[in-house]
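[step 3/7] fold_predict: job queued, chain A
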Amino acid sequence: MRAFATSPDAPMHRRLLIKAALCAAAAPVAAQPAAQPAAQAAAWPTRPVRIVVPTGPGSSLDLIVRAMSDRLGQRWGQPVVVENKPGAGGMLGLDIAAKATDGHTLAIGFNGPIAFAPFLYRKMPYDPAKDLLPVVMTTSQPNVLAVSIDKVPARTVAEFVAWAKAENARPGGKVSYSSLGNGSSAHLTMELFMAAAGFQAVHVPYNGSPPAAMAVAQGEVDATFMVAPALLPHVRNHKVRLLAVSSAQRPDSLKDLPTLAAAGFPEVESLAWNGLFAPAGTPDAVLQRINADANAVLQDAAVRQALDAQGLTVVGGSAADFKRVIDADVKRWGPVITRIGVKLD
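[step 4/7] structure written:
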């Protein structure tokens, strides 16, 4: 050490050592950004998480979120608040999530206000592709063609089509159908079916599936296309009859129903999907945390059993998987909507 101290090169050596020490000290700092996302995800959530449901209580979306909310809350260590905001074909609730800035608001979305609305409305309060981020697909399910037992004698799809044509030809006769809102998968599936089958019916939109299903059960309308959960209680009460499903994918609870393809309408195929969305700008680490926890909850045996009993098929998967489903729906239904000429403004 003494020889080093008296060396004429000592100042240079000191500068080199100091420089090396500073570089070594700087190395961990440079690595910090890589660890930051994990810490960010671990810190989230710091307050109750709100999940906006763009349909009313008792709807399929409401059932899905409520089936998951307690277990998500347990994983997150924070309460999950379910907030129903029906209206405008689901756009009201999705707009709330799109404009949320608190970092703790999500929404459950579905085909209508995400994939169909850009083709149905000239102006929307949000841009689904820019203002919302797909997080995880929760379930998918076919729409079910259902009729009022008190008004419609048909027991098959062919009998329903024949009845509808005869009813429209009768003086004063007019077939009607309900949906869970303008631009919903239920609405567009019926429009596609009518175009393929060659009959007309008056569209009566409702704010969600429970009132739309009740309208069929009470004979206020003749028929509907919608997912099964809101219809099943009326089926058990012998007020509604299910005729067919709109997809080849059928949950166990609907295995006895024929598909529309088997009934002679292969061009009428639709799958209603739904999933969690977050506002644009949500950190990737937080999105990954929500995705992982939602997937874990969807694998819970009790949750899966509850959803399957309602005719809902659990999906899960990555955010990229969900985005591919959305993109495919946009590509498929955009030309269909244009061809059948449905416009809502």
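[step 5/7] annotate
The chain has a mean pLDDT of 88.
Residues 10-43 form the longest helix (34 residues).
exit 0
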